[in-house]
Amino acid sequence: MSDDIAQVSKYVASATLAPIQAGQYSRAQVLQAVEDRGKYLGEPGDDGAAMVAGTLVSVLANLTGLNRRDVANSLEFSTRVAMREVGDNQNTAEYWVAFTRAILQIGWFRQFDQWSSDFINGSTTGAANFSDYVIENVRNDPLYSAAEREIVIRSLESLRSQAEKRAFFRQFTASGTRGSFGVNAATVTNGALAMRFSAFAFACSAVVDDYLIFSIRNITASVQRNNVDVAANQRTIDSVRNQLEDRLDQAAGDFIDSVEI
Fold this sequence. Notes:
By secondary structure, this protein is an alpha+beta fold. The protein is built from eight helices and eight strands. Helix 3 packs across helix 8 (about 235-250). It starts with a helix and ends with a strand.
């Protein structure tokens, strides 16, 4: 085992995840019907999407079943680590810093990472809600290819039209005057797996119940945004896949659900 792989394995083994509490099912039990987390992202040959806590991840049709499994595993593991680390500060920029830091310690390497700030005046922005604001940002963002941009927007529009799915997403993304969520496109180019994602953290002048559909006409908000591009070190991810899944299978609660697109 190389030093790099040994270091990742040590991190996976030592990371603190939420323990199983009385009355909760482990992911191993929840996943019996679908066999692996990648199934939530659909079958190879089809575009797919899923919520992993407060991240909406979209995958293009060219991702293999193993690619989808690695994307879902990596996002769930990093989410659990970050949530445990930041506690009540989940819907803040601090959470997304911890999330990215965790991703980079489990077999992914950074190609681009940039923070920016914005201010929303709901009466003048032209966006009806925060998801409209995110869609407009993605539509004009050079981070994404045309195909990635299209599937991210299609997935977000689909999610906000499904009340049951929104309820799942809302538990991770809304906490009164603070809210945040991320959109993610997973792609394969020349055989290499990569993820590009944008995270948005909102600090609002009033309580927002649902950051996908709640009207922002009478709200102002400060926005912190993080654009990140990461690529997989596939040799490392292959080496720790089973270990990482074993850790996730003993973690508490449901963090992942599919989105029809």
